[in-house]
Amino acid sequence: MPTLLLRMRAPMMSWGDHSRFTIRDSRREPTKSAVIGLLCAALGRPRWEPVADLAALKMGVRVNQEGVVQCDYHTVMDSIKSSGSKGDTVISQRYYVADADYLVGLEGDRSLLEDLDRALQFPCWQLYFGRKSFIPSCPVQVPSGVRDADLLTALKLHPYKGKHQDKPLRYLLEVPDSLDVRQDVPLDWQKRLFGSRCVETKFHPLEVAESCISLN
Questions:
Q1: I want to staple 120 with a disulfide (CB 3.0 to 4.6 A). Which of 53, 57, 141, 204 is the partner?
Q2: How many CB atoms lie within 10 A of CB 55?
C-alpha cells in the first residue's frame, strides 16, 4: 500500500494522550489523535463529522531528533465550577516536547492519501502541534509526499541529515499486538471517545545511499 509522509518540526510540541484536570502530559512522539486532528484542520473537517476513514490509516513515526520534555505552569484565576459558582485558583502543570523533529507516515488508500497531501499544501485552517501557539517551523507537507512503498520502507528511505548520522533512528509502528498500548485513536471528537492501538518501537540504522535534507 502507498504511504503519505508528513514532517513535524517546531520549537515546542505537545502530544498528550491521557491528560486529566491539572496535569497535562505529553508523550515523546506524535499521537495518532494529534495527527488526525491536524489532518482534520487541513481538510476543514469540523468536530461533528466522522473520522473513521482517517483513524483506519496505519501510522508510523521516525524520530529524526529526540526532543526534551519540559513543563510550564499555568495559573487560572476566577475559575468556574460545574455548578456555575466561582472556583478556587487553579494551577496546572503542562508538559511539552522542545526541539524535536519527526517524520510521520500514514499507510492506506491512495485516493484518500492524495486528498490529504493536497490539503496539507493548502490547509483550510491553521495547523498546530497540540496547542494553538505551537505552530510548525517548516512545512508539514513533504514534496511528493505520497510514496509507492509500505509504511516502514517509506519512513526508512526518506532522506535525512541530523546530528547523529552514525546512530540508528527510533521508529514507532502500529502493529496488531504488543505490550505498548496507546489510547489515542479518535472515535468521536465531540464526546471525547478514543480507541486503542498497539505500537512497537524499533531502531534502524540509516541507509548509506540516502541523499540528505538539512534539519536547519
A1: 141
A2: 17
Domain that holds residue 125: 3-66+97-204
Grid-cell match 517524520, residue found: 103
Evaluate whether 203 touches 169 at the Cβ level (below 8 Å).
yes
**Domains: count for the chain:** 1
89 part of a folded domain: no
Q: Which CATH number is 23's domain given?
A: 3.30.70.2660
The alpha carbon torsion through 34, 39, 40, 41 (nearest 10 deg) reads 90
* Residue 77 belongs to some domain of the structure: no
Average pLDDT over residues 50-69: 96
Closest CA to 56 of 29, 36, 41: 36
Alpha carbons 49 and 168: distance in angstroms, whole number: 40
| Global confidence as pTM | 0.87
